[in-house]
Design a protein that fits this description.
The chain is about 45% helix and about 15% strand. With about 425 residues, the protein is of the alpha/beta class. The structure holds 1,4-dihydronicotinamide adenine dinucleotide and 2-oxoglutaric acid (AKG). The site of 2-oxoglutaric acid has 13 residues, from β3 and α12.
Length: about 425
């Protein structure tokens, strides 16, 4: 069995509280009314279900599943489904709120939601995962809907799981319902460009930030934590833009080569090695903690929460952090990072390329029409660049870090819409 590195040191911060502490600061700067603050801080709906699943050995195992709708003020709620052992209600609540802010930052007409099941998909067969996903969909059938709540992939899920969700939901409705979920396989209503969209948005915002910091991408070095969907696409696209990706990592550890990792080879190796980089040659094995403190220009955390925390923040040497993951920096680390003058492109901006192309997928499903990859990429690049410039402008105007500026942009939009809608 592959060696699993212990989880990195954490501040043990409750992710919902981490979200709230930034929300509070941004709300204060905006002078948000207390009543509106109270509306926005509370998730609109929280659903917890027990999911009995027959395992391959004939035993029945009960999993706990969650779906949290944080807000539907801007539109139907949108957000991925996570399959991971660490899933719990507070994490899903935080991830759902981040979806609300993220959709507002890139100005797409969605509210925020997130779902998850506490399970270890790496130790489950495809059949067990399929039965779990179908049971989850069955239990959430009254929550999901193309005009209500639209799930998508997140950590531990991908197009295969979205196909099972769409099929199960369609069986319940008695009609094919493509637009109930995004991130589907291309042959069943998926959008060109969705698979790489989150990593592409990371690349676009990283390039925009490097321009502001006057970092020449052709001389820049980079380290990427997490080599799943987001991390591997971000690494590949940054490499294509001239950066030397000196280190990549996953749960098996980190892999470092001063002259640069051959990203295509690493992807190929992972795909032929049950999704793991364990044993990847052509690089020195280091720890995930070491990767975070490498003397690189750009650091892309693209794995999970709290990996940059008050313990390791003083040792971070990167000039720029672009957050592919949701919540990779603890709120306690924010001040340390800011005092060091490191620019952070925050999660709710940097990884919004995924939900942006999910929105395009939903639009295409509703039109019954398919866009070209070029159209998808051009439009999503424009949205990401505009969102970056808008957040950067607010950060300069109010002299606040990019993270607080992004929250300010989001809260301003959601609170104004709330007031216009009225009637509550
Ligand atoms: N898939 C998407 O479109 C989007 C994902 N995200 C966020 O990006 C992050 C990664 O998501 P995906 O790439 O979709 O997941 P994934 O399941 O495809 O990959 C996760 C990767 O992170 C690694 N990993 C997990 N825990 C780790 C740890 N403690 N240290 C080092 N590596 C670790 C895994 O081994 C794997 O390589 C999550 O925070 C997710 O919420 C954000 C926006 C959209
Ligand atoms: O593509 C989507 O709809 C949501 C992706 C997601 O879960 C995220 O941005 O964190």
């Amino acid at each position: 069995m592959a060696y699993i590195e212990p989880a990195p040191l954490k501040d043990k911060e409750n992710p919902f509280e981490a979200m709230m502490s930034r929300f509070k600061v941004a709300s204060q700067i905006l002078g948000l009314e207390e009543e509106i603050y109270n509306v926005l801080k509370n998730p609109a709906r929280q659903v917890i279900v027990s999911l009995p699943v027959t395992m391959d050995d004939g035993t029945i195992k009960v999993f706990e599943g969650y779906r949290v709708i944080h807000s539907t003020i801007l539109g139907p709620s949108k957000g991925g489904i996570r399959f991971d052992m660490a899933v719990n209600l507070d994490e899903v609540k935080a991830l759902a709120a981040w979806m609300t802010w993220k959709c507002a930052v890139v100005d797409i007409p969605y509210g925020g939601a997130k779902g998850g099941v506490a399970c270890n998909p790496r130790e489950m067969s495809a059949g067990e995962i399929e039965r779990l996903m179908r049971a989850y969909t069955q239990a959430m059938a009254d929550v999901f809907g193309p005009d209500q709540d639209i799930p998508a992939p997140d950590m531990g899920t991908g197009p295969r799981e979205m196909a099972w969700l769409m099929d199960q939901y369609s069986r319940i409705q008695g009609m094919t319902t493509h637009a109930v979920v995004t991130g589907k396989p291309l042959v069943m209503g998926g959008s060109l460009g969705r698979t790489e969209a989150t990593g592409r948005g990371v690349m676009v915002t990283a390039m925009a930030a490097m321009e502001k910091l006057k970092i020449n991408p052709y001389k820049a070095t980079c380290a990427v934590q997490g080599f799943g969907n987001v991390g591997s696409w971000a690494a590949r696209l940054l490499h294509e833009r001239g950066l030397i990706v000196q280190a990549v990592s996953d749960l098996s550890g980190a892999y470092y080569n001063e002259k640069g990792i051959e990203i295509d080879k690493a992807v190929q190796y992972r795909d032929n090695n049950k999704g793991s980089l364990e044993g990847f040659a052509g690089a020195e094995k280091i720890s995930n903690e070491d990767l975070l403190t490498l003397p690189v220009d750009l650091l892309v955390p693209a794995a999970t929460e709290d990996v940059i925390n008050s313990t390791n923040a003083p040792n971070i040497k990167a000039k720029l952090i672009v957050e592919g993951a949701n919540g990779p920096t603890s709120s306690k680390a924010d001040n340390v990072i800011n005092e060091k003058g490191i620019m952070v492109v925050p999660d709710i901006l940097a990884n919004a390329g995924g939900v942006t192309v999910s929105y395009f997928e939903w639009v295409q499903n509703r039109l019954g029409y398919k866009w070209t990859a070029d159209r998808v990429n051009r439009r999503s690049d424009r949205i990401m660049k505009d969102a970056f410039n808008n957040v950067y402008r607010v950060s300069q105007e109010y002299k606040v870090p990019m993270r607080i500026a992004a929250y300010m942009v989001a809260i301003d939009k959601v609170s104004k819409t709330y007031k216009f809608r009225g009637g509550y």
